[in-house]
Design brief:
Cytochrome p450, monooxygenase, oxidoreductase activity, acting on paired donors, with incorporation or reduction of molecular oxygen, Cytochrome_P450_monoxygenase, three-stranded antiparallel β-sheet, Cyt_P450_sf, 532 residues, monooxygenase activity, binds protoporphyrin IX containing FE
Amino acid sequence: MLESSSGILWPRLIAVFAVIWGFSVLRRIFRLVKVALTASEFPKLYTPFYPFSFPGALFTSSSWNDGRDWHWVRRFQTYRQSETVLVVPILAGKPGLWSSNIDIGRQVAAGGQRSDFIKPPDSNRPLLAWGMNVSAAEGPMWRKHRRIVGAAFGPELYKLVWNKTREIYRDMIEVEGWKNANVVDIPTIQKITAKLAFLLISTCGFGFPPTWEDFPQTADGSMPIQEALRIVAETEILFTFLPKWLRFLPISGMREGRLARKRLRIFMQDQVTERKGIVAAGDKRADVFTIMVKSNEDESSKYQLDDSELIGNVFVMLFAGHETTASSLAVALGYMSIHEEIQNEVLEQIISVLGPTRDPEYDDYFKLDKVIAIFYEAIRMIPAGHVLIRGAAEDTVLTVQNPVGEEGTKTVPIAKGTSVIIDMVGVQHNPRYFEDPEEYKPSRWYDLPADSEQFTAFGVGSRACLGRRFATVEATCFLTLLLRDWKVLPVLRPGETKEAWRGRVLNDVRVGMTMKPGDFPIKLARRNPLSK
Ligand code: HEM
Ligand SMILES: *[C@@H]1O[C@H](CO)[C@@H](O)[C@H](O)[C@H]1NC(C)=O
Ligand SMILES: CC(=O)N[C@H]1CO[C@H](CO)[C@@H](O)[C@@H]1O
């Protein structure tokens, strides 16, 4: 009995699955043929899996597939014929338009009341997991969030950022034991810059005291919050793009990721409660979180954010501002290490503004444009915010510039639901905007007015990076102090040239939520050696 029934069951089940699968394959082929036959205005690029969806995002690029780092790996090929291309996945994912043209960027990514393009909910999944927030919201919801969050980003905050950076730099020199050293070997510069960026957000964002000393193990043996944040940042892409049930597999990485998320969530909840108490007690603090809670309490209830939204916005700061700033600073130092001539040029400005010993003040920020420029140029080379992801909310059109050398534009219809991706690597390496785009040349940005729209790697229009000034002020103060005291040197392999070092280290990028180079060491040599 049993035998005969299972003998019938299995072939039937298999037949049913085969039919379902067959239909989905047919549907896919039908769609592909339809896309292939549309006389798209843009060249089509075929690839097995869409680079930014499951399972394509799991892979890096190889000869047979464009993975999640494809825009970096193929940065000199993709846009050779056209600044906008249609990426068509054959096996999995939906087609999407990718563009290296910032004019298209302004049409789709700048926000504004009349825009037909939105950030698609899918691209916001990692952020929404922590509560709705300024980065994920759209329309009136976005304006409400940006009001509350934006209220905190003003001159008082930037002065605080500047002062705290200075304080943290001194503390770092002390705690790391560099005070009496003439030469310092830093095995992983990212450890230093990540700690700096984290401390800045934890002190100017949350109002914590900044100390370079490692956080003590918590009394109950739970994970230190810094550790939780690091793990969440590192596993975010897995948790976002993998099917949910995989999180519960007994793999140590998954378990750690789950624990870190839980730890961070409880931490956030405590923070909201604590801030409300501080505001109610009339304590005036300049950190973003307190000001945000305060301006929220001052709003009429119609415009107020709830607790989960406040948490969402705090998380955005940690998330959008931590890894981006840390890796951009590391890249700047990496480029400094192989460009002694630029270091000297910048040092000259630092000395002419500050002299050899005076403490830098926030007012100096505006005179240190060459220091700002080395940071900007590092972000241009490896844009930490590597894509602006948008989708057409309506049937609409794009005005597309003709290729370089040809005047005029053409109007291209875009169907509702079309995904448009502004490829920041493409934009920042586009020869339309940059001479010798692959060359690190900070002089492109000398004399650039602060917050100029000409620098596009923080995004465009009203939806551009809220933390741009925060990051730039922090970087300028830190680099000014560091470059005045120390000469930055690369750690070369035997016989390796600086150009080869750049290829091996700085051109080897990792793509997750941010784009960044792999970890690397640098060396510092004191400019005025201590006699011993
Ligand atoms: C070098 C460092 C940074 C880079 C390269 C960077 C890059 C970007 C880019 C490209 C966007 C636009 C995203 C889009 O339009 O889809 C953005 C948005 C944003 N950034 Fe940054 N960012 C940096 C640092 C920071 C810091 C330090 C903070 C906070 C303290 C921050 C907070 C935000 C927020 C809240 C948004 C969303 C704004 C909105 O949608 O209204 N960023 N960032
Ligand atoms: C920053 O430090 C200066 C002294 O160097 C001080 O006068 C100023 O009040 C401080 N500002 C803030 C916002 O901490
Ligand atoms: C408009 C919107 O999506 N608001 C969301 C804010 O965040 C909370 C918590 O994640 C959601 O429940 C809301 O839907």
